[in-house]
Design goal:
The chain has 15 helices and eleven strands. By secondary structure, it is an alpha/beta fold. GO terms for molecular function: ATP binding; ATP hydrolysis activity.
Amino acid sequence: MNPIKLENTHPAVTKLIDNIQKVLIGKRSVIELMVSAVLANGHVLLEDVPGVGKTMLVRALAKSIGGAFKRIQFTPDLLPTDVTGVAIFNQKTLEFEFRQGPLFANVILADEINRTSPKTQSSLLEAMEERSVTVDGFTYRLEDPFFVMATQNPLEYEGTFPLPEAQLDRFLMQLRLGYPSVEEEIRMLNRFSEANPLDQLESVLNVEELRQLQQQVAAVKVSEGIKEYMVRLCHRTRDHHHIYLGVSPRGALALFRASQALAFVRGREYVIPDDVKELVPVVFAHRMIVKPEARLEGATVDRVLTVILSETRVPVS
């Protein structure tokens, strides 16, 4: 089976990645993973130090797909109804009317999500998993497609509330941008010297075209050997002596969907083991917890995953 050339079959994906690169320089691999998450209809957690472009990446993505975009700045005093919406009594009709919150959009930027209380964080759980919001006993469907792109700073601990495992498990991927190289940072200065390229960015996809691409991603073939490889990797995280909490079945499904999307982005109609290997760190790491005693011995999630990948048999056909 010969790989399908991306530029001949899926020009919209190439156009989307190139469009985002007009704003974010030198981060093509991260952009490819971000686009893969969108094509897999999954949420993304961006964890990195301030100022590396987390918010700009999400805004560029939202502009590129042309969907409704809402930004929520998470603060300690934010209430769940500030996110989901609230029922307000109308004195003219003598009935309660639901006023939609910022969750009712296609792309949600949950900025500094770990700075709000667990009560407000939990308002996202139903939305992220079931694409709906329940207020006062009534359930309201959210936009389709619907993505939560959350950011958090790993260095700030004062006034922050770590996300619970149940919420972390709902993110398809956790990505880090990292600092640009010297050459990339010089290019950034030149590009931003006259105007912000984000202001001039135009959409290259519409929501309907995105839905069609998602349907094509769902048709990407995954062999039985690859499926077994994914499941064995999940089970190894649950059985490893350094791991307290391993990857859930939802994590296995996330790896499956992300692998289909990455293969599609790379121009193939089938998944190969290298797709799975590349995705394991960004799909699994935030779902795992190392035992305290193992952490004292220097064990980390990344090191454990490296060992698991090296010891798990790779399918050859």
